[in-house]
Amino acid sequence: RLGLGFNKYFSIEGVLERTELDMTGGGTLELDGMAVNARLNFPLTTLDSAKVMSFEPYVLVGYGIYETDHGGQWSNVDGFRLGIGIEQYLFRELSVNIGYSSTSVTFDATVGSPKTDGTIRVIDIGLIYPPLSSILATSLRVAEEVAASIFDAGSARVERPADLQAFIADHVYR
User: Please, are residues 80 and 65 in contact by the beta-carbon 8 Å criterion?
Assistant: First the structure.
């Protein structure tokens, strides 16, 4: 999945999907596809100076194109997609996502059989993390937030450093 956010409410994403299904009566069905979705986010909370986690349900609408292989018989299908999901940002740079999408398709007719309507349903779980170039900065920020929480709760067995950020940066392995 690759996307481009235009603002905190709207984004466009491209999706590649590949799966192999065991069929009733034997055999397998290979399904390769791609889709383009328009995604509308509904941020219910936002990340702010109080470090509140962001919780963002979303809906999406798109179009998918798939190619199937069932025992050497190829078929091309396409159709409109609808989906829902939730994005939970743990920090600005790190989020988890769970989503569901449904694509209504019509499978091509094969010799002796009519076209068949079907639905491709996908449940996906993902993790969005920062680029490798900013992993250290992100890790330092996460460590600072965890350490601050420990000090704020009174669970630390040492005194709180005057500059927690500098203290953590001085003690990180590089």
Answer: no
Residue 143 parent element (H or E): helix 135-152
Of residues 58, 67, 18, the one with CA closest to residue 38: 58
39-94 residue pLDDT tens: 999 988 765 555 556 788 999 999 999 888 777 777 788 899 999 999 887 776 67
16 beta partners: 34
- Sheet of 10-22, strand order: 2-5, 10-22, 28-41, 54-70, 73-91, 94-107, 116-128
Q: How far is CA 65 from CA 72, 74, 89, 106, 174, in A?
A: 19, 14, 30, 11, 46
Q: Tokens for 153?
A: 């709760």
